[in-house]
């Protein structure tokens, strides 16, 4: 009913946009032929036998598509997390930022593969076109294109002089200034283009109620400068090169910053399970004294009542520096074929500072019984140091005739470092861990001067090689057969180093408690007790733990190799110039990897196997005069989907999380996608898209739900029973026993139970998506005015393979509107815009959940050796929603000099 009311309200707005009649003379809103390069040749989008959504710079300005998130509204099956820079298509996508694993949607910026989707968010002044290819692009794109590919094409140098400047001002004090200039150089045959922008926002979308602490949410200060050269050496040889530099000096804005809503009370236990120090919420338990809490709401989470309010004492910082991105292509035209060499690469340093958890109490200090003062707030630092370079050589036919062909070789070389640290930045005791905790170093622990409670750093070298070919054969004038094959080989070698320090947690000093030891409580280096070399290293580990006496870190070596033959075959039927029907089979592949770093350290089972996907797709692209419709039906058989799971040992004491990429044995994804454009009268254009997606697991038994290890939720489907687990405790062999779960004892649990996940939906796969845009141009005597209104709606979705109420994001919708004024000489454009007109809360993806579990220590001090009771507690499940921006509005000015 809510959806229906919103759609009716939006229809009224759309009607208002076109209510005034005008004599149409032909405006920007017409159905035009769109040329794409999705199959490495220039073709009309309507002639390509692939499901494609394409956005030109002019189309983006018309509709108001200014971000990747906007593109998801008008691209069937596309989902994107701007906070985490993760993209998925048709239920297949990236669910982690671990670089030792790969994305499922490949992003190519001017022919160069990139590991991030960020460049797709460049403004229309930089990008000429964005092509989103849905379904496995098994032959021509190959690398990590198991779900599809995003092809970014920059605006290129022009033969005639061109210069343009743009400026935007919006609420939250957002400024954007950019400009471009292009034309010939003094060197014959050489053209240039230079584009730059500066974007800054000083007010955040999240109001931080803690006095003196900054607001968060898109608080940014960024620059992009990009230069291009085009070379026309002679009639047979041409080249092009681009160099880009990007700088971020952001506060709480950009990828990695806060973008979530957690409407849950703060935890109030002393130490969370699998943690190694005190939780800030213990200052709200009533068991401590000398509490420092500057929040006006005290121990009440402001997000319980308002998703746009926070109480945080650790500010975000998002920085990007030392960034250079290079791309080039060099083409030699022979008489019957082209030879193209595409090469480029990138390097960057990304640096994120943030609290380890978005939803901890803003308590900065408290004193335990006995007199030990705790400074519980922590700073989490995450970095990426990336370098990669790629080479691709292609040969493609250019002659006339029924047989056309294309062949190529590809090589990718990447090195990355991904260090993370958690700083207990005011707890000076952890600078010098007690020597007895380092027996491998003669009971002398290296110092810890930076006050790092945890440190983890993967360093990896990744190579990818491929050879491929594709042929197109015109059987008749209307029927064409296409077949392609690709062989890929991927290797990943590297290392991981980690160190863990424990402070004021009873499990780190067995028999003694911080309430007893008081100011004499030592910091304990638990690295050597957590990471114990095994007689047989786990799969993918080439050398198990060694220990460095200079740093105190444990180190492990990794080595993995995967390969796969993929390809595609299909028929295309074009009985007339307005009809394109196709049947296509594709097999996609994504290499395996390792679950290391980011949110875990030297986990017990790091290896994950490769994914494969088989797709059958039927599509029709049809133009009926002033109406155009593209329809695609697809069916995926998906094997070994890599899903990150972290199941913590809940048996009590000092434990390590078991973080893995769980390979889901079998899943399917099927659906229908409809994209339409209708121009019922001159100057009026209506775009309407709909997609249906059924993406679910067909075989998976055994995973444990991290938020509900005992499978107590009514929707859980446990394998076995708690009663059976209790009976098995009498067995002599402990290996036959169920894993204990102390934290669910009071709820009737007590053991971890794996579940049968058959029928569970894959993450971030809403069943329905709808998008409508209506734009109309009024032609005046000296100018034109164009109004545009967009409405988008998507159904509920889950953020986990455990489909529960606590991992479900509800359905949501959004209304955007803009109006532009342009004189007939086209010298300038003035645009007024509003996004999220009704200021609704939307959801970028499914929700995530965690069980708030930990230990409550003694309420009073006692002498060392006195028996003490520690209580394991569970304080419920908290749900975190990734939410979209609030209402934003502003004005944009565009001026074209020539």
Distance between the termini: 51 Å
Low-confidence stretches: 1-26
Q: Give the fraction of residues assigned to helices.
A: under 10%
Mean pLDDT: 92
Count of individual beta strands: 48
How much strand? Answer: over 45%
Rg, Å, rounded: 29 Å
Secondary structure class reads mainly beta
Basic shape: globular
What does this structure look like?
With 898 residues, the protein is mostly beta strands. The protein contains six helices and 48 strands. The strands form nine sheets. It has a 25-stranded antiparallel beta sheet that branches. A five-stranded mixed beta sheet has the order 3-9-10-7-8. Strand 11 and strand 12 (174-184) form a beta hairpin.
Break the fold down into its secondary structure elements and pairings.
Elements: H1 2-17, E1 35-36, E2 43-44, E3 51-56, H2 57-63, H3 68-73, E4 78-81, E5 86-89, E6 92-93, E7 105-109, E8 112-114, E9 127-134, E10 148-154, E11 162-170, E12 174-184, E13 190-201, E14 207-208, E15 220-232, E16 237-250, E17 260-261, E18 271-272, E19 289-293, E20 309-310, E21 317-333, E22 337-354, E23 363-367, E24 373-374, E25 379-397, E26 403-417, E27 420-423, E28 452-474, E29 479-503, H4 514-517, E30 523-525, H5 527-530, E31 541-547, E32 554-573, E33 579-590, E34 593-594, E35 607-608, E36 611-624, E37 627-648, E38 657-678, E39 684-699, H6 722-728, E40 768-779, E41 783-794, E42 797-798, E43 808-809, E44 812-823, E45 828-835, E46 848-856, E47 871-882, E48 888-896
Parallel strand pairs: 7-10, 14-20
Antiparallel strand pairs: 1-2, 3-9, 4-5, 5-6, 7-8, 9-10, 11-12, 11-48, 12-13, 13-15, 15-16, 16-21, 17-47, 18-46, 19-23, 21-22, 22-25, 23-24, 25-26, 25-27, 26-28, 27-28, 28-29, 29-30, 29-32, 31-32, 32-33, 33-36, 34-35, 36-37, 37-38, 38-39, 39-40, 40-41, 41-44, 42-43, 44-45, 45-48, 46-47
